[in-house]
Amino acid sequence: MLLSRFNVIMRICGVNWCARNGWTHTKFPRRGRLKLTLLYMFGLCFSISQTVEEMLTQVVGESITFSKKQGASLLYNGGTIAVVVKGNMDSSYIDSFKDRIQWDQQTGQFTIRELKTSDSGIYVVDGKGGVKTTYQLTVYDPVSRPMLTTLFNGSCSVECSVMNDRDVTLSWYSGEKILNQTSSPELSIKLSLPLEVDKQDRTSYRCEAANPVTKENVTFHVPTSCPETGPGPYKERGYWSLMAVMCVLIASVVIGIAVCQKKGRTGHSQDTSEREHADIQYAEISHIIPTSIQDGRADISELDPPRETELTSVYDKIQFHRIVDSGDFKTA
């Protein structure tokens, strides 16, 4: 930081100009070198009185406008990135800046758009009359939103955590009062901050993660986030009541399934029996004497008249393939 400021001041004094034009100490006599040294010291004091430094911060993706008006050139970390000549700006010196620098013709102010973290550094605006203004710009990423983890270990405690980054602080608030705060120079680690509260507390607490340009917070409400957890007769009674209700429900479901399965098997057996009875047909079988035999008996007078034949009922199940295959019986 001090070295950067020194380099800027030396440029203001004109040391670089002397070197570019071949004015070195070897070309001056001893008395001349003394005068030149005094002149440099005077110029140094004058330049310091004319230089105003400003600390600027901005978030990634936003724009920054340097307050110096009537700027003629813009330098970044010692290198020129934009020059104004006859009302026209040339920003083609560094590729990473050439499409993001704007110059207002009315005010003469320089603006850098779509900032990146790599844009952080020392900027010098060279105005008319040789007055230079130095700025230190720091570009930050947006801070992440913190997360809460509630712990139940006989009491109510909560831990707030967030991913660390440059200049990030993590804090617990009660209203506007800071209860606890932490930060770490180590980047890309997790910052954690615990808080233990009373279960009977009705206060809302706020955990906030912040950097110089952004902040995110989350609220912790004790009654809703940390309910009563201690043992007691009412808690145990409610537990056993819930268990009893669950057992009754499970038993009811099991009994219902068993009854349904039993009814299904009974109905299936009845349907099978009815189908078997419906398939059985009953028929009376009669003994019929062929006509040729009856005619022969009529010519023989000695033969006794035919006696009535004793009938016998035979039950059988009619099957279609037996009727088709048999040609010896005729149905009346």
TrEMBL record:
Coiled-coil annotation reads: none
Q: Where is the Ig-like domain?
A: 142-219
Q: Which SUPFAM superfamilies match?
A: Immunoglobulin
Record PROSITE patterns: IG_LIKE (PS50835)
Q: Which UniProt keywords apply?
A: Membrane, Transmembrane, Transmembrane helix
Q: Which residues cross the membrane?
A: 239-260
Q: What is this protein called?
A: Ig-like domain-containing protein
Q: What is the lineage of its organism?
A: Eukaryota, Metazoa, Chordata, Craniata, Vertebrata
